[in-house]
Amino acid sequence: MIESHLPAVSTYAKDIDSLILLIGVLVGFWFFVCQGMFFWLMFKFRAREGHRTTYVTGEEKELARWVHIPHYLVLVCDLFIIVGAVRVWYDVKQNLPEPDATVRVIGQQWAWTFVQPGPDGQLDTPDDIRTVDNLHIEVGKTYHYKLESKDVLHNFSVPVFRLKQDAVPGRVITGWFEATRTGEFDIQCAEICGIGHGIMKGRIKIQSPEEHSAWMAQNSTPAIATASAE
Amino acid sequence: MIRSRLWSTGAVALAVASLWFASTARVVDAQDAASASPSAKADVAHGKELFDLCSYCHGPDGLGKPELGAPQIAGMPEWYLLNQLKSFRSGIRGMHPDDEAALRMRPMALTLDRPGDVESVAAYVSSLPKRKSEGSLPNGNAAQGQAFFATCMACHGAKAEGNQALNAPPLTHLGDWYIAAQLQKFRAGIRGASPTDTNGMLMRPMALSLPSEQAVLDVAAYIGSLAE
């Protein structure tokens, strides 16, 4: 359902969509039940000639039931949401699968810089490939990201991955993703970071193994790879 | 009665939607035109409106904020401002991972995406009065720097007044801290190393001809002292 508006392109995107859908359906159900109940009561107890208003304290058992029963039912729904949320949280944030590669993601006002290992497969070596605004990754590979900020709070957000992670100055935050199909999608900052926050954008380019190898070969010199500008 | 109200509400909604589509179409046309016409007409009043965004870093009078790495741009020649804005927009500047100030500037330049935006803001900034800034390099020796400046004179002029024919900007009011920072970037290859940056490629060997980091500070202090 959500995927029809925004593609789900990571291994955990559909789990997050399902959780949001579950919350939406349960909360939506109770919202409409409550609203229906209010309007029905307003109609049933509307002002009429010859009827005096009754003062209801809600202490009588048969009246208190109107509060207690929905309350317990909502708690049961909460249990479903909590179980679903904890499972998704564990898979996305607590679990850290073995990586095929690691990229460094650096936020600053108002650009993203990415550092990828070169042919030696090791980060922080002379053959690293650095790019601004464009992150090139390979489909089907598990990536760890090391997220940093040079100045203020940022948030590394890839909507098609359903990924959002705060970047905090002075900290290196590790997370992971695995893309499920090729394509080019948005990267954005999802934490207010100054006057240019709204235009702090990048692109993630998910490539087939052949395309990615060709890109690596083209850029694996010490020279800096920079994306085309406009 | 209800039916006629529904019809009128529908008609209003349709009119609003049409206006929205029409305005969107104008934006798209404008963007296409922006890329098609390189020399759109400058409108100083429009430039003043656009400058509001620039003022957060460059200050309300364009006098710069060294703490943000934003130089004084007030009173710089229009041709230079145009060149720089276009360089930022095309990625010639502002795409090096180590050039933090330029990385901040590039998205700002990209917001000038309608025909005449770049020209208008350049015209407005150029019309602002410049001001001599205080020296900010206590370790820079202007007297020593005068000797090193001989190399710069060929393009930037004897008093660093600039030379449009050589795309060499006036340097005196940019701020000595900014001159030093740019020289260090040219020396480190952060600027002037990309084949697309033809002006920068000319500047880089000049910056590398300075024998030391102290010479960079000295020549920057000297250039700053030339401001009137």
Give an account of the 3D structure.
Chain A is of the alpha+beta class and 230 residues long. Chain A has helices spanning 13-44, 61-94, 209-219, and strands at 101-108, 111-116, 129-132, 134-138, 142-149, 154-158, 163-167, 173-178, 183-189, 201-207. In chain A, a hairpin with a 2-residue loop joins strand 1 (101-108) and strand 2. In chain A, helix 1 packs antiparallel against helix 2. Chain A is elongated and about 90 Å long. Residues 223-230 of chain A have low confidence and may be disordered. With 228 residues, chain B is mainly α. Chain B has 3 domains: 1-36; 38-127, Cytochrome c-like domain (Cytochrome Bc1 Complex, Chain D, domain 2); 142-225, Orthogonal Bundle (Cytochrome Bc1 Complex, Chain D, domain 2). Helices cover 60% and strands 0% of the residues of chain B. Chain B is built from 9 helices and no strands. In chain B, helix 3 crosses helix 5 (117-127).
CATH fold topology of the largest domain in chain B: Cytochrome Bc1 Complex, Chain D, domain 2
Work out the helix count of chain A.
3
The biggest beta sheet of chain B reads: none
CATH homologous superfamily designation of the largest domain in chain B: Cytochrome c-like domain
Structural class estimated from helices and strands of chain B: mainly alpha
Share of helical residues of chain A:
25-40%
Distance between the ends of chain A: 33 Å
So what's the CATH class of the largest domain in chain A?
A: Mainly Beta
Quaternary organization: heterodimer
Question: How many separate domains of chain B?
Answer: 3
Percent helix range of chain B: 55-70%
User: Which ranges of chain A are low-confidence, i.e. pLDDT below 50, for 5 or more consecutive residues?
Assistant: 223-230
Please give the number of β-strands of chain A.
10
Mean pLDDT of chain A: 91
Name the CATH architecture of the largest domain in chain B: Orthogonal Bundle
Can you say what the CATH homologous superfamily of the largest domain in chain A is? Cupredoxins -  blue copper proteins
Tally of contiguous helical segments of chain B:
9
User: Most extensive interface: pair and counts?
Assistant: A-B, 23 and 20 residues
- The overall number of domains of chain A is 2
